[in-house]
Amino acid sequence: MSESFTIAIDGPAAAGKGTISKAVAAHYGFGHLDTGLLYRAVGARMLEGVAPIEAAQNLTPDDLARDDLRGPEVAQAASKVAVVAEVRAALVDFQRAFARRVGGAVLDGRDIGTVICPYAQVKLFVTASAEVRARRRFLELTAAGKVISLEEVLADVKARDDRDMNRAEAPLKPAEDAVLIDTSDLSIEDALAAALAVIEERRSAS
Q: Which of 20, 26, 59, 75 has the most CB within a 10 Å radius?
């Protein structure tokens, strides 16, 4: 497609929004931006001693290509820097420019449908119970060789949810016109099918 078409996919950690977003982007040939990666990159720089606002204002492609952005320590740091209004402001323009790209864009994060792209043609909110999300993250971490207990992962998930949902700046919540997809009891294939059904309905109506 030559015109822009924006799909906003929000939700908490380990709900499946990243997997769904990548698959949706591949299905339609759209560009994909994991906006959480921006905050993880800022968080990683903060852990190295760089002030969060400075890191956000000077983010580079190399920062986004680091191979240490998926660990739990960086995830917690990302959640902490995401509450800083100046950090969010520094990253807004980058995200909005990507969303307007010709050929279509899929953005996943926590405030895409509410703040970054309130004009998006499709808004999805992908969620799952904290227990299900913790188990998914636990299996992912232990498969990568991380020594951690399921209880620790669940505590981390709940702490991050609390921070994300209760921050003053752009809290995690569904947009009023977002379609909720609960993946607690869905396979990846079923979750993707549910997302594509919503998108196809919106595309045919536009």
A: 20
